[in-house]
C-alpha cells in the first residue's frame, strides 16, 4: 500500500469542505428526522430497538454516499487525464484501487461514527452483537458502492453524471428499502436493486431477516442468502463493469 | 521506411538494450460507432540513444497515438514497440522512459510539491523532490495549488514529474502547447540542459520552428504513416526543393493543359493556379523550370527556395496524403 498517496488523498478530501459537509452531516440529519424524532423509536425490532434499526440504516446510507462520492471523483480524475499520468509511473492498477478502496472505507467511517455517537446519545439500544456486527457490516460492505460511483462516472464520462450520483443514491435508497418500509410488488422489485442486499445484511444482526411494514407489523422474512446473493451479484457486476471501463479508458480520453 | 540514426557527438546516457525506441510495423485501429478508424497504419522507426527527434505532423496524423504506444498507454493492434529492448510498460516501470503529456493529467486540489511527492512515491528510487522542482524551474511554486498555476507552470510541473525517475528517454507530446513565447523559450532552455546531459528526447509538435531549432532529426507523420525522415536540412531540400511559378495562360483550356503537363513532370508534388500564376513545387525545380520554359513556352518564370513550412505543407497536404483523411481527423476529436 502506497501510504504517501493515501495520505495525500485524505488531505485532498479534507480540502473539499462541501463534500465533507454532505458526507458527515446529511445522513446524521436523516437519522435525527427518521429515527430520533419518531415516537416508535423505543419499540422492539428484534435484537435491538427501532432507533437502532434506523440508525444502522442511515449509517449504511451515509457510507454509500461517501464511497460512491470517492468512486465518482476517481472517475472524473481519470477522465481528466490523471489515469494517463499514473500510467506513466510504476504504480499498478491494483495499487491505485487499494489506495482508493482504503480511502473510501476511511471516509465512510466519518458518517458512520457520527451516527453511531448520535445513536448512543439518543436511545438506540440493542445487544452487543447487534451493534457490533451491524456497524462492522456497514463498513465492510461499503466499498462495493465505490465501484458504483466509478462505473457511473466512467460510463457517462461527465462531471454532471458524477454530481447526479448523490440523487441516484437517494432513489436507490428508497428502492432498496432504506428509508420507508416497502411491501407488495414494490418490495419484490426492491429485492433486485443494488442497495437492498447491503442494507438488509447490515440490519440482519438486529432483525434476523424480518422486514417491517409501515404499520409496525412484519411484511416478510428474508432468508440470509437473499441479501448475500443480492450484494454478491452487484459486487460482481460492478466489478466487471469497472474493470472493463477502466481498460477502455486507458488510452486517449 | 527504414531510418538511419543521426546520432550526435554526445555520449548516450545508457546504450544497453540497443535503440532507445524501435517501432516495427506499428499499427493502431480504434473501433468507433462509425466503424474502424486507422490512426496508425504501419510505422517503422528506430531512434538511437542520445538522439533528439521531432515528430512533426498535423492534427490527427497519429502522433499522440504513436507516442502512447511507445509509453505503453495503448496496446498496438499490429506490429511491435520496444523501448531500450523492453516492452514499453516494463521500460516505464524500470524508470527508463518518462513523458510530458499534452493536456490534463494533474489533480487541481493538490499543491505543486504534493503532486511531485505523490508521483515520486510510486518509484523505488526517485530523484529528490526539491531537485526536480529546481531543474524544472518551479522551486518557488511548491506550495501553490495546481489549480492556481498557469498553463506554462502546469506544463513545467509535468516536466518535473517526468524527471523523477531520471529517465534515459524523455517523450514530450506537444510540450509547449498553450505557452506564451517566454514560457516556451524557458521550457526549451530547460530541455536543452536535459538533452545535453545525454538523454534521448522525442517530442511531437506542430510548430516547425521548434522542430527546426531543437531537433537533430525530424520525422514527418501524416495519416498514420512516416512521410519523411531526416535532418531538418534534408527534409527541406528533399521535399520542398524550390517552388517554380510561371504566368498561367488566360485561355482555360490551355491553362488546364499546362497544369496537367506540370503535374506529369518528374518529382512534382503539387501544381496549382492561384492569382493568375501557376505554382509548381517538387524535388527537381531545374527540370520543371526547363520543361515549362523550353518545351511549353511559359512566361514570367520565377524560382523561389522552399522553406521548411513549404516542405511540411507539401508533405501533409490532403491530396498527397493517403486516403481516409477525414476519419483520422476524427480520431483527434474523439480523444
Describe the structure.
- The complex is a heterodimer of chains A (253) and B (335).
- With 253 residues, chain A is mainly α.
- Chain A has one domain (3-248).
- In chain A, 74% of the residues lie in helices and 3% in strands.
- Chain A has a two-stranded antiparallel sheet.
- In chain A, α2 runs antiparallel to α3.
- Chain A is globular and about 60 Å long.
- Chain B has helices spanning 63-70, 88-93, 112-120, 129-135, 151-163, 181-196, 208-214, 232-240, 252-264, 285-295, 308-316, 325-333, and strands at 21-32, 35-47, 52-56, 78-83, 97-100, 169-173, 200-205, 217-222, 225-230, 242-247, 268-274, 277-282, 302-305.
- Chain B folds into two domains: 21-236, 3-Layer(aba) Sandwich (Rossmann fold), CATH 3.40.50; 242-305, Alpha-Beta Plaits, CATH 3.30.70.
- By secondary structure, chain B is of the alpha/beta class.
- A six-stranded mixed β-sheet of chain B has the order 5-6-7-3-8-9, sandwiched between helices. In chain B, strands 11-12-10-13 form a four-stranded antiparallel β-sheet.
- Mean pLDDT of chain B is 82; it is low at 1-16 and 319-335.
- Chain B is 35% helix and 26% strand.
- In chain B, α8 (232-240) crosses α11 (308-316).
Secondary structure: elements and pairs:
The complex is a heterodimer of chains A (253) and B (335).
Chain A: H1 3-15, H2 17-36, H3 50-79, H4 82-87, H5 93-121, H6 128-141, H7 143-156, H8 159-175, H9 184-190, H10 194-207, E1 210-212, E2 218-221, H11 225-248
Antiparallel strand pairs in A: 1-2
Helix pairs in contact in A: 1-5, 2-3, 2-5, 3-5, 3-6, 3-7, 3-8, 3-10, 5-6, 6-10, 7-8, 7-11, 10-11
Chain B: E1 21-32, E2 35-47, E3 52-56, H1 63-70, E4 78-83, H2 88-93, E5 97-100, H3 112-120, H4 129-135, H5 151-163, E6 169-173, H6 181-196, E7 200-205, H7 208-214, E8 217-222, E9 225-230, H8 232-240, E10 242-247, H9 252-264, E11 268-274, E12 277-282, H10 285-295, E13 302-305, H11 308-316, H12 325-333
Parallel strand pairs in B: 3-7, 3-8, 5-6, 6-7
Antiparallel strand pairs in B: 1-2, 1-4, 8-9, 10-12, 10-13, 11-12
Helix pairs in contact in B: 3-4, 3-5, 4-5, 8-11
Amino acid at each position: 500500500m502506497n501510504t504517501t498517496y493515501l495520505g495525500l488523498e485524505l488531505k485532498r478530501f479534507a480540502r473539499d469542505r462541501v463534500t465533507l459537509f454532505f458526507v458527515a452531516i446529511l445522513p446524521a440529519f436523516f437519522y435525527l428526522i427518521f429515527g430520533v424524532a419518531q415516537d416508535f423509536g423505543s419499540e422492539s425490532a428484534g435484537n435491538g430497538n427501532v432507533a437502532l434499526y434506523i440508525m444502522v440504516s442511515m449509517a449504511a446510507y451515509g457510507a454509500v454516499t461517501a464511497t460512491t462520492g470517492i468512486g465518482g471523483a476517481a472517475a472524473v480524475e481519470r477522465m481528466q487525464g490523471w489515469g494517463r499520468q499514473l500510467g506513466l509511473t510504476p504504480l499498478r492498477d491494483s495499487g491505485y484501487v487499494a489506495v482508493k478502496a482504503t480511502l473510501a472505507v476511511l471516509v465512510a467511517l466519518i458518517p458512520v461514527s457520527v451516527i453511531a455517537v448520535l445513536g448512543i446519545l439518543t436511545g438506540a439500544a440493542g445487544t452487543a452483537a447487534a451493534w457490533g456486527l451491524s456497524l462492522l457490516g456497514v463498513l465492510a460492505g461499503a466499498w462495493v458502492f465505490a465501484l458504483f460511483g466509478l462505473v457511473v462516472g466512467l460510463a457517462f464520462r461527465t462531471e454532471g453524471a458524477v454530481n447526479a450520483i448523490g440523487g441516484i443514491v437517494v432513489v436507490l435508497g428508497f428502492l432498496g428499502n432504506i428509508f420507508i418500509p416497502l411491501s407488495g410488488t414494490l418490495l419484490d422489485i426492491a429485492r433486485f436493486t443494488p442497495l437492498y442486499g447491503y442494507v438488509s445484511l447490515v440490519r440482519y444482526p438486529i432483525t434476523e431477516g424480518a422486514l417491517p411494514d409501515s404499520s409496525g407489523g412484519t411484511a416478510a422474512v428474508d432468508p440470509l442468502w437473499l441479501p448475500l446473493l443480492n450484494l454478491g451479484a452487484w459486487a460482481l457486476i460492478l466489478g466487471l463493469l469497472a474493470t472493463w471501463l477502466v481498460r477502455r479508458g486507458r488510452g486517449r480520453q | 521506411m527504414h531510418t538511419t540514426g543521426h546520432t550526435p557527438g554526445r555520449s548516450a546516457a545508457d546504450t544497453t538494450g540497443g535503440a532507445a525506441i524501435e517501432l516495427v510495423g506499428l499499427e493502431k485501429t480504434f473501433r468507433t460507432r462509425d466503424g474502424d478508424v486507422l490512426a496508425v497504419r504501419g510505422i517503422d522507426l528506430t531512434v538511437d540513444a542520445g538522439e533528439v527527434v521531432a515528430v512533426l505532423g498535423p492534427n490527427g496524423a497519429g502522433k499522440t497515438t504513436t507516442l502512447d504506444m511507445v509509453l505503453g498507454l495503448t496496446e498496438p493492434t499490429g506490429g511491435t514497440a520496444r523501448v531500450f529492448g523492453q516492452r514499453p510498460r516494463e521500460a516505464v516501470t524500470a524508470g527508463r522512459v518518462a513523458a510530458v503529456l499534452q493536456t490534463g493529467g494533474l489533480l487541481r486540489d493538490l499543491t505543486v510539491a504534493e503532486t511531485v511527492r505523490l508521483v515520486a512515491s510510486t518509484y523505488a528510487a526517485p530523484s529528490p523532490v526539491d531537485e526536480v522542482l529546481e531543474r524544472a524551474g518551479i522551486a518557488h511554486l511548491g506550495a501553490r495549488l495546481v489549480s492556481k498555476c498557469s498553463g506554462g507552470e502546469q506544463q513545467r510541473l509535468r516536466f518535473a514529474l517526468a524527471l523523477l525517475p531520471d529517465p534515459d528517454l524523455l517523450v514530450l507530446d506537444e510540450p509547449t502547447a498553450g505557452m506564451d513565447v517566454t514560457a516556451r523559450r524557458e521550457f526549451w532552455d530547460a530541455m536543452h540542459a536535459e538533452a545535453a546531459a545525454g538523454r534521448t528526447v522525442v517530442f511531437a509538435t506542430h510548430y516547425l520552428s521548434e522542430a527546426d531549432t531543437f531537433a537533430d532529426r525530424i520525422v514527418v507523420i501524416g495519416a498514420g504513416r512516416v512521410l519523411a525522415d531526416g535532418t531538418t536540412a534534408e527534409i527541406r531540400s528533399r521535399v520542398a526543393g524550390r517552388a517554380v511559378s510561371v504566368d498561367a495562360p488566360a485561355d482555360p483550356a490551355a491553362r488546364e493543359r499546362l497544369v496537367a503537363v506540370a503535374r506529369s513532370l518528374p518529382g512534382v508534388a503539387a501544381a496549382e493556379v492561384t492569382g493568375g500564376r501557376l505554382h509548381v513545387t517538387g524535388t527537381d525545380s531545374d527540370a520543371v523550370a526547363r520543361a515549362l520554359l523550353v518545351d511549353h513556352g511559359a512566361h514570367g518564370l520565377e524560382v523561389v527556395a522552399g522553406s521548411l513550412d513549404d516542405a511540411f505543407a507539401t508533405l501533409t497536404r490532403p491530396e498527397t496524403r493517403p486516403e481516409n483523411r477525414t476519419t483520422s481527423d476524427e480520431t483527434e476529436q474523439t480523444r
